[in-house]
């Protein structure tokens, strides 16, 4: 009997080792990050432009980075967006703070005024842009708070500030320019100032593309983790082969399998592109390749956790590094 149990445990471990390569993914709560990127993707589909996620803008008053979920940049406007993945019944207190009561559990959560926080983020971003040489016209920068979770219900939604996009409103957004939220993408300039508009638009995109932000892991199953890449772990020869992947030199890497027939790969191809501030990415000829064991790991510090995490390369789709 004991022999059968031991053999069963051995077979189970071998199965998890060779066929289940997303153990680390299951150990991390990624719903908030997934909601953030899902919102960003939908905004681009609806309004066009570009979305910058996970920014860490320096705050001169506190000398600490200010985290900003999303910044949507389109022609004539930029919007600072906070994505709230709250679930339950939400109401607004007279002082602007929010109360969230869960459905299944008798648990009440209190949150500082998200609109006030987002307006502060917009002010810090505007100051940062001025320091880098871009003074935005009045009304160019606005803010929104999006309730992205379908399991959220707003009590007396009329009490919520106009900057709040409830989940029902979020579902109703459409790509038509005259939709109920067409004010998001309003023209800040007259047609006679088209050159000025394009100049600010280009400078704004360049500054945000080079601004400090969280490193980003894209994991299997359309999951994301924001945080800080620390180092690679594994066999010495694999770590040595990856020595050139540093944030000062590399902006992005992509992990590809080398095996066929659906079996867990013993080795993986890692493609990485050199950092170049003059363009948004490397061309195909600039990508470099290295092959390492699939057991190689990435040591990563998630932004929402005090615990260091190790992710197997086999569970990673890509990794983007901030400058």
Automatic annotation (TrEMBL):
Keyword flag Acyltransferase: no
Extract the PROSITE patterns matched here.
NERD
**Any idea which UniProt keywords this protein has?**
Signal
Does Signal count among this protein's keywords?
yes
Q: Which residues form the signal peptide?
A: 1-17
Q: Where is the NERD domain?
A: 31-148
- Which Pfam families does the entry mention? NERD (PF08378)
InterPro entries the record matches: NERD (IPR011528)
The record ties this protein, via PANTHER family, to: SI:ZFOS-911D5.4
Descriptive protein name: NERD domain-containing protein
UniProt organism field: Prunus armeniaca (Apricot)
């Amino acid at each position: 009997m004991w022999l059968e149990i031991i053999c069963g445990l051995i077979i189970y471990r071998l199965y998890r080792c060779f066929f289940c390569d997303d153990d680390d993914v299951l150990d991390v709560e990624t719903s908030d990050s997934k909601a953030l990127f899902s919102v960003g993707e939908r905004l681009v589909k609806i309004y066009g432009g570009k979305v910058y996620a996970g920014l860490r803008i320096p705050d001169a008053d506190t000398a600490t980075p200010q985290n900003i979920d999303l910044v949507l940049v389109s022609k004539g406007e930029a919007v600072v967006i906070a994505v709230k993945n709250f679930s339950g019944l939400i109401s607004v207190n007279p002082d602007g703070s929010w109360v969230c009561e869960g459905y299944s559990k008798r648990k009440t959560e209190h949150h500082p005024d998200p609109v006030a926080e987002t307006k502060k983020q917009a002010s810090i971003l505007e100051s940062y842009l001025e320091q880098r040489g871009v003074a935005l016209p009045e009304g160019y920068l606005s803010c929104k708070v999006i309730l992205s979770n379908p399991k959220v219900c707003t009590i007396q939604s009329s009490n919520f500030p106009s900057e709040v996009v409830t989940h029902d409103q979020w579902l109703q957004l459409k790509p038509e320019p005259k939709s109920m939220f067409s004010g998001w993408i309003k023209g800040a300039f007259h047609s006679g100032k088209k050159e000025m508009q394009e100049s600010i638009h280009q400078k704004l995109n360049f500054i945000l593309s080079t601004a400090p932000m969280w490193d980003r892991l894209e994991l299997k199953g359309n999951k994301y983790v924001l945080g800080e890449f620390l180092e690679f772990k594994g066999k010495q020869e694999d770590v040595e082969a990856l020595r050139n992947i540093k944030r000062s030199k590399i902006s992005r890497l992509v992990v590809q399998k080398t095996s066929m027939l659906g079996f867990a790969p013993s080795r993986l191809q890692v493609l990485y592109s050199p950092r170049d501030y003059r363009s948004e990415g490397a061309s195909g000829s600039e990508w470099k390749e290295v092959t390492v064991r699939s057991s190689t790991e990435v040591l990563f510090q998630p932004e929402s956790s005090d615990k260091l995490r190790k992710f197997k390369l086999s569970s990673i789709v890509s990794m983007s590094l901030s400058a």
